[in-house]
# Entry
Amino acid sequence: MSRQIMEQKAEEVEEVKKLIQQYKALGVAGLQKVRAAQLQELKKKLKDVAHVQVVKNTLMKRALAELKDRPNLEKLESFISGSNIFLLTDINPFKLALLLERGRVKTTAKAGDVAAMDVIVPAGNTGLPPGPIISQLGSVGLPTRIEVGSVWVNKDTLVAKKGDVIDARLASVLSKLGIKSVEVGLIIKAVYENGLVFTEKQLHLDLEGFKLNVMEAQHNALSLSLNAAYPLPENIILLVQTAHRKALNLALNAAIPTSETVVDFLRKAHMEALGLSAKLPKEGEKAQPQPSQAPAESSVQKG
# Structure
């Protein structure tokens, strides 16, 4: 009987080895708190990008040890513990990790789950009839009132912060209110590709932060190229506009007539002529003589 079991396991290991050899990358993901229905949904989402396979840890470790043509594949063994699922794919490991992160689904919490976000119970009608629910809501800090035969929450109330562990009492209340406060999904532990093993931390990408860094770098590079007058496809229009503006200012200051400055010169001459004409006497008016001062008479004292 033991021989038969050993032969069966050997066959299973060979099947796993053949499966691994069909793909460029092999990922290990944790299955903690992922329910069967959610796992099936995740498999459907990943069917076009990855083959999802459940394999016993002992069989997978044996298969990895026997695949000598894959350098450093044995380093993946240290991540194979607990409940796991294996993902075989030809896509980039970072893209795989991103797809798994985006594929996480919200669900109602159970005791011991960790809040995935700040959990706020909104003000309004709970739709629940008066009864024991009033004391249950009050026990988690929700102010309530009875109106039109149902229990209402008086104001928006924060009942848990992101990262808080949700106890059984709060989990029960949130479930009754239909509030989904946790996220479940496959958490990538590590991915092997081309002799390299990428860990969960290495695979995590801050896309928003990266986008902001790229935008800042692009802005700084553009400013540097403009200040250095270094022509590029991205800045040539701005450089030409700057050169045109400086040339126009130079022509205006130097009183050099061109097709672009003549209008400004005529406008300036016109304004100066208006200012000058304002100082001249109008038609029909005589120029007022300027008052002259007669020399003061000097008195001579005769002795």
